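Sanity check

After download, print the first record. It should look like this:
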Amino acid sequence: LTAYPIVFHGVRDGVFDVMEIPFSEQTPQMSDKLTYILLALLTLTSIFISDLGLINAVGGGLVTTPIVFVFPTVMYKAAASMKLGGDFENRYEIGFATILTLIGIFIGVVGAWIA
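Expected structure tokens:
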């Protein structure tokens, strides 16, 4: 319950950014109006959508898996390639990171498919 305002504030700021409204024009009155509109839209949406299991499952498969498996291994491969060059031991580590990347992609696709 206490985390909702923090998340909602980010959503409201994101809507301001998408609408390309400069920060200087974002008055408290405009912010309040946008808050009321967004809360009304969320409330109307919650009337029609009661089960978010599918959304959570697809989100977990397509968002969480790359954050855990893919991005760290891609960053490691880039950093190791720049720092160590063609070191023999480094090839094994980069190969292992590539395998982990492929496994992560596979897990994400299967997770989204099963959802």
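If your output differs, re-run the checksum step. Summary of this record's structure: The chain is about 85% helix and 0% strand.
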